[in-house]
Every structure is written in C-alpha cells, then in structure tokens.
Amino acid sequence: xxxxxxxxxxxxxxxxxxxxxxxxxxxxxxxxxxxxxxxxxxxxxxxxxxxxxxxxxxxxxxxxxxxxxxxxxxxxxxxxxxxxxxxxxxxxxxxxxxxxxxxxxxxxxxxxxxxxxxxxxxxxxxxxxxxxxxxxxxxxxxxxxxxxxxxxxxxxxxxxxxxxxxxxxxxxxxxxxxxxxxxxxxxxxxxxxxxxxxxxxxxxxxxxxxxxxxxxxxxxxxxxxxxxxxxxxxxxxxxxxxxxxxxxxxxxxxxxxxxxxxxxxxxxxxxxxxxxxxxxxxxxxxxxxxxxxxxxxxxxxxxxxxxxxxxxxxxxxxxxxxxxxxxxxxxxxxxxxxxxxxxxxxxxxxxxxxxxxxxxxxxxxxxxxxxxxxxxxxxxxxxxxxxxxxxxxxxxxxxxxxxxxxxxxxxxxxxxxxxxxxxxxxxxxxxxxxxxxxxxxxxxxxxxxxxxxxxxxxxxxxxxxxxxxxxxxxxxxxxxxxxx
Amino acid sequence: xxxxxxxxxxxxxxxxxxxxxxxxxxxxxxxxxxxxxxxxxxxxxxxxxxxxxxxxxxxxxxxxxxxxxxxxxxxxxxxxxxxxxxxxxxxxxxxxxxxxxxxxxxxxxxxxxxxxxxxxxxxxxxxxxxxxxxxxxxxxxxxxxxxxxxxxxxxxxxxxxxxxxxxxxxxxxxxxxxxxxxxxxxxxxxxxxxxxxxxxxxxxxxxxxxxxxxxxxxxxxxxxxxxxxxxxxxxxxxxxxxxxxxxxxxxxxxxxxxxxxxxxxxxxxxxxxxxxxxxxxxxxxxxxxxxxxxxxxxxxxxxxxxxxxxxxxxxxxxxxxxxxxxxxxxxxxxxxxxxxxxxxxxxxxxxxxxxxxxxxxxxxxxxxxxxxxxxxxxxxxxxxxxxxxxxxxxxxxxxxxxxxxxxxxxxxxxxxxxxxxxxxxxxxx
Lengths: 484, 429
What we know:
The complex is a heterodimer. By secondary structure, chain A is of the alpha+beta class. Chain A has helices spanning 2-29, 31-36, 42-49, 85-88, 99-103, 105-108, 116-123, 139-149, 177-182, 185-193, 215-225, 265-270, 274-284, 286-296, 322-329, 339-350, 386-402, 466-483; strands at residues 55-56, 62-68, 74-77, 91-92, 96-97, 132-135, 154-159, 166-172, 233-235, 239-241, 248-250, 262-264, 354-356, 361-365, 371-374, 379-382, 416-424, 427-437, 448-454. In chain B, a hairpin with a 2-residue loop joins strand 4 and strand 5.
C-alpha cells in the first residue's frame, strides 16, 4: 500500500502547492487590480468610517467638515455649498478627490488607519485625530466676488501681492461638492456632462486670450528695454495697416486715441490704444515680448496648491510674421492666460516687480487648533525691474483714474488696473480686469491684487467690455476688501 | 519535538488567540473585551486538555498534530471572532466540547486501540448513511432537516425552546472513512485482482465491490439531492483515493475521474445551481451582482490584503458573504496578507505530511488506510474550499477544517486529530 499512499501524499502536497501559487497570484500579482476595482467598496468604507479634518477660511468659516451620522458612518459636508467648490474640491469615494481635499489629503485624513502602529501610538497618548486646514481665503471677499460675478460665467482671483496668499478664488458656474462627495453616481455624471462645465475651474484650469490686459506685459517690455518711459510719445493712428497683409488694426471705438498726432505711453495704456501698442509690439520685436511674457510666468508651471494649466505665449517665429506679432501685442491671436496668471502679473507690478509664490493654505492646525505648520510667503520670480514696476503702477493708476478702468474706482482708495476685451471670432468677447490697490506714496504698499475674467461679454454679451463688465466686479471685491 | 516544545507551541496558540482579540478590539477603536482573557484560557483548557489526553492514552503519538491543530484553530477563531463576536463566543463552547469529545475518543480506545473500530464497520456505515439522510426528515419532527443557503444539509434538534443545528455530513465523513478503511483492509486483495473483463477494461468481482458501491452511491445521491456539492465531492474523491491506496490500481481513480466528468457534465446540464457555480467560477465578474458576487468579493478581499494584509480588525472581511464559514480563508488573507495565507497553507501541508507519515509507518492495512483516509479527508476538504476561494476550482460550499466557524466541523476535525494520534501511537504494533 505504501507506494500508492506515497503517490497520494505527493498529489496532496502538489495540490497544496497549487493553493500557495494561486494565493500568490491573487495577492501579489493581480492584487492591485482587485483592490482598485470600482466595485470594491473598501476604499469608500475606509473613508466612511474614519473622520476627516475640516477646512476653514482665514476668518474661521467652516467650508468642509465630516459629520457623523446615526449609523456611525461619516459624510463629508460643505456648509457653504457651491461657494468654495473650486477651492475645496470634493472628497468622493466614487469620483476621487479634487482641490484642497486632494492636495491636503494627508493632513485631512485621520492618522488612525487601524494599524497596530497607530493603536500603539494612541495607547501612549498620541493624537491620531485629523488635522484642520486653514485657507488664506477671506470669506467676505469670496462672497463679494461670487455675488459680483453673479450668474455670469467667469472667474475671480484675488491675492495678497506681498505674500502670495490667495484671498478669493471663485469660478462660476460652480457645483455643490456634497453632490460628488455623497450623491449618486448619476448626479455626478450629470454635472460632468453639463455643457456649462460647472466642474471646470476657470481660474486655474482654462486659458483665455488676455486681450488688452496683456498690454501690461508689452509696456513692461518697453520700459525694461530702456528706450521707453511713460512719457515716450507714440504715434496716434486711427488705423494701422499691418505690413505684408491686408489686415488693419483699429482702436476700440474706431477713431483716434488722442489728438490724432501722438500720445504718451502712459496715456496709450490708460485708453488702451490698440494702434499704438500694435506698433510698439512690432518695434520691440518678438524676442522682447517673448522674454517679458516668460518673465511673467507664461509657458511655465505656476507652483500652487492646486493644478494650474500653463499660459501659453507662442514662441519663436513671430519675428518673421509681423501681423501676428502686432496682434499678439494686443493679447490676441495665440497668447492665452489663466486668470491666476494674470492676477500674478498684477501682483508683481504691485510688489516691486516680484511675483510671490501663490498659495491657498495658510496653516495646518491640529484637532485642538494648535498650529502644526504655516505657509510662509516666498518669492516665485522677478517679473520686471523695480523701476519698471513703479512706472507701471503710476500708469495703471491712470487706467482707473482717467481711462477704461474707471468703473473699478473705490472712493477714498487709489486703485491701479488694466482692462481687457479679447475679440473672439464669431462671438462675444472674453473680458478682463486686472489690478491692485492701494497705490501708496512708496511702491509696494498694495495689499490686494486681482484678476477678473468674464466669458462671452457677461451680461452685456456682444457689447461687453473689460471696462463695463469686469471692472465693476473688481470694484465690488476691492470695496469689500477695504470695508473689511 | 520534545514534550516541552509541544506544550510551548500549544501555549503560543492560546496566546495568539488572546493577542488577536486584543488587536481586533484596538483596531475597532474599542477597549479590549474579556474575550482577550477568556480566549487564551479556553484554548489552554481545550488543547492543553487534549494534549494531556494524548500523552496519557496515546503517548507515542506524533507531537506535531496537536500544536498544528491548535494553531490553525486559534488563527481561525481570531478571524471568526473579529467578524462576529457572538460567533466567536459560541465557537469557544464548540472548542471545549470538541476537545472533550476528542479526549473521550482516546479514552475509549485506550485499551484495545483503533483496531476495535473494525468490529463496528457496518454500524459505522449505517450510522453514516443515516446521518446523511437526517436532513431529509420533514419539518415538525423534533429532529428535522433545515434548508440554509439553498442546501438542505443541516439538522435542527428541537426540544422545547432549545434548538441546536448541526451538519451531520461532518460526522458522517469520519464514520464512512472508518468503514472504508476497515472494509478495504479486509478486501483489498480481492479488489486488486480483476477477473472480469468488459472489453479491454478489467473489472473486480462485483460481489467484492458491492458494499463500497452501495455506500458510495447512497451517500452521493443523498448529498446531490441535498445540493451539498462540497461534501459530495469530498466523499467522492476520498472514496476513489482510498480505493487506490488499498489496491494500488490506478483503474479506480481513473474510473472515478470518468464518473466525475460525466456526472459533472450531467449536473451542469440539469441543475441550475451547478451551472451558476461554474459560471461564477469562470466569469465571476460577468454577473457581479448575482452569482459571481461571493467569488468576486473574495477576490477583492485577497487583493486588498496584498502582501502583509491590513492587520487583524483593519480590513473589511464582513463584505464577503459567509466570511466566517466558507470564506474564512479569504478573510484571513485580507487581514494577514499573502504572508498569513501562505503560513496557513504551510500548516495544512505540515499536517498532511504528519498524517501521511503516520499512514506510511503503520504496519497493518487498517491503520494505514484509516490514517491515510483521515489525512486525505482533511487535505481534500482544505483544497476544495481554498481552491474555490482562489478560483482554482468551482466553489463548493464546505468548511475549512479547524478555521471556519461551525461546531460540527470543529468537533469532527478534533476527533479526526485524536484518531490520527491514536494510530500514530500504535505505529509500531
């Protein structure tokens, strides 16, 4: 009997070996596939039972929190609804995480992962409760920006030019993050399919032709070149035929910008004189514009808590295509910018030419409110020289005092800015206002810089312009800032 | 292995049960319960007691048997109690009863040895078949069959308000293995010669084979009728393997394979529940919400466990249907990972090696076949359920020996260990 028993024993051990091989395959080889399968509810459950830290504004308003339900599970709620949707993003087991929820997941999630290490840590008095994230955003400014934008599609970014702290970040249309955090998949899919693109963060994730607001970059290039001052006289034309083409540049109202002979660079910026800036752009040349744009951060990645798409400035061959160069100098053609990029441009002018590294998180707090970490202001890049920034500040103040940006004026405060109205072939323009305040006796005293973008001319549609649509929104935010 | 080592290993298994209970409580964010103190005490009492019984009445037995059983039971208990605390507490009672039963078996065999079992072979056969038939008793009787999860393989004893459910198949498997070992020990020579021919195929004398075929046919038919695929397959494979062990003729397993293929095809054709099992095996994600759900949830558990597991109490094995019984292996692999899963498989392999070693060293055919049959039962049952969880085989519901929750299973397997120990004790004679 022993030979047969031996063979049976060998067969049994072979079968057990097959079990070991199968187990190894399922756990070590195919394991991650099963783990990440959407139908595996473990990730959602993990999240549902563990607490998650709150997200607060700079002034202590709770904009995201986890609430315990009667059955012991937790649900992520967003008390301010859509207002902070594009800041906090959402934490969803089904759709994943976005915004600060994703960027600061390690701070927000509970450190009690159920492991033995965590249990021992807690046994010896360690605090496993999740941290809180305090934003730099001020609730009053966020609300003022959202109210001023109203039902128009667009974005507002306001930041402290001396630190880079973002004071308001609004993108409209928004969405209720709770729908994605705990709603049905169908509700989330409906948001994703909405043609108004409520999930798109227009402040960071979309680029628009900057129009005349780009003239700030052209003016900076001119001043940096050394051949121009704010007082340099430029020819005042009603029409500028572009060399080597049939295209003609005209001014916004079709006439001259001034007396029909010449006007200063400062005046040309104030009234947003297209013919003068198109000629200036061609005179400066493609290389000078390219360098000034890249110094401002175009074509680069902006370091930020959230993802920002690069703002493209077309490289290279503009020098051989003067019509294209002229149109680029007006912020048209192929140049595109995110509202954050334009806000940083304004902030650089306000801060002696240095753009600070933008940030949304002011501090990380422990569960009792004690500070664990704080974001310190750090410079990101020098956009222009100190003197250039000082000159541009004076020039941009004139835009508001006696130019296209007058609707941004705040009584009792000195505001500087620049409007932009980017022509879109076959449709209403995208309109801009970028600026900062207050303008002090000495440079670098501004405490808020902002960019406002409204798609498709906003409420005014075809007739919309940066001065008529975007500047009043900027005014509302600035007024709220000085009132607060 | 010295006696001290053996005792230390059993104590470690008891400590494992206590530590597991503490870890599970901490992972749930709760204070440790009294289970953390009770469990080691129960394990020490049960396996320490069994160890003393083995030393007294089977002193020359292989020393690895009890520690291995203790370790597997402790690990299984930790997982079961972590999934359902009440089941864990019940299982402690079953453990005490099972250990007492195993010790009692050794006591009864203390004088005359396992050889005495040969006398009762037909009693075993009739009792075994009777047990298999029990679940078919109609409702309203004090002892009646109960259908659970679509299979009628449970019996409920009802006496007033007290009710007790058990799976008679677990006890029947021991009785039938004992019958087969005894019968084949006497008749193996007669079954080895194949005087009759059916074409090119040699056949043994039908008279010799008849009781075996009867036992096999009845048990198999009953189990098919009860839709207990796991137990039918287990008995079928053990039958074929024991016939092969007794005769050395490959014709028996070959014939069994043909029968199995034919029966399997027929079952696939005519039984919806068999077809559903096969579909769930081949394509668990095709009907995810339906037939494939359990297998798919098992795979999710395995994948989430990865190499080192989530840790006891930190996974979500409750998501798997029948996590404490049929799928306890998936639950362990989730929380202890590949490392823990392989350790469990290795422990069964050690137990198998010990069991076959006892069979090989035994001198007389009955003891050889009894030890071999019992070991086969243990291994085949393990391979059937773990292979089902791992999608190596279609899933057939059956318990994982020592680890799954279930009184009948634990009792039967503890008695199995005591029988192996006794055979081992008698190796030299």
